[in-house]
Amino acid sequence: MKVILDQDKCVASGQCVMAAPEVFDQRDEDGVAILLNDSPSEAGTEDVQHAASVCPALAIRLSA
Questions:
Q1: Nearest 5°: phi and psi at 63?
Q2: Long-range CB contacts (< 8 A, 24+ apart) of 38-42?
Q3: What is 8-22 written as a DSSP string?
Q4: Res 64 pLDDT > 90
Q5: What is the dihedral of CA 8, 3, 44, 50, to 10 degrees?
Q6: For a disulfide at 9, which of 22, 23, 52, 59, Cβ 3.0-4.6 Å?
Q7: Could you give the CA distance from residue 28 to residue 37 in angstroms, rounded to a whole number?
Q8: How far apart are CA 30 and CA 39, in angstroms?
Q9: What domains can you pick out in the chain, each with its CATH number?
Q10: pTM for this predicted structure
């Protein structure tokens, strides 16, 4: 799985960080999400899918 984060769409809600902290973090200055790992292991797939589904700005896309 490949994770794509559109920082321009991000509204800094932090939902992705709570759902998948090994994949997402937030910038200190404005809270916009940053991608720590764009190719997480299969063990983290469910967490990343949850993060994408709860993102209020739909800023996270997943591809195979």
A1: -135, 160
A2: 38/2, 38/3, 38/4, 39/1, 39/2, 39/3, 40/1, 40/3, 42/1
A3: TT-----HHHHH-TT
A4: no
A5: 50
A6: 59
A7: 18
A8: 25
A9: 2-63 (3.30.70.20)
A10: 0.94
